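Marked as duplicate of an earlier ticket. Keeping the data here for the record.
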Amino acid sequence: MEKVIVLVSGGMDSLVCAGIALKENQEVYFLHMNYGQKTSRRERLSFDKIADHYQIPLEKRKVIDMTFLQQIGGSSLTDDAIQVKTYQGDLSIIPDSYVPFRNSIILSLAVSWAEVVGASRLYIGANHEDSPGYPDCRPSYYEAFNKVIEEGTKAGNIKILTPVISMKKKEIVGTGQKLNVPFNLSWSCYKSSEKACGECDSCALRLRGFKEAGIVDPIEYQ
């Protein structure tokens, strides 16, 4: 039986990715990263609730501390000196919410755990529409990283899967609805841990996705 790991941030993209992985596989592990983001406590709560919802055993859950990224800074998500901006529309420039080289660090740690537990697939909810300016959300980035994994691991058989990378937000919402994922347990806001701000890039894109899908977003907004 193939083992797979899903990177579950607590956001809606990773939630739908988890739903896809659980439909396709029987032995699924959940992995969460705390990289010192401003809503880390709330995202961890979502991770725990989603894992409970899907009855993932404790021995198949892992939370890794990456708060050292706060020491590096350079992102509005990890640096208190940089304010989280309101959504300015779809831009091709790299926004200041980009955490420098974060996904490479996340994937490296995920691959390490995959080698330990014997998992051969890593599911990540990277989405190109979500972050068109993020260099580590491009399909070509994941193709390159898969080559690194092939060269740098014992068996060379671990692959990253990005099932929602080319989907529009409304498609992600629609897929999640078909899979009956618990959107009410997810959290996408970059700024607030109580009620979602509704104004940051992540909230704006999420709200647009639900609106275009004709579905009411079940979480609370300010």
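See parent ticket for discussion. The first strand starts at residue 3 and ends at 7.
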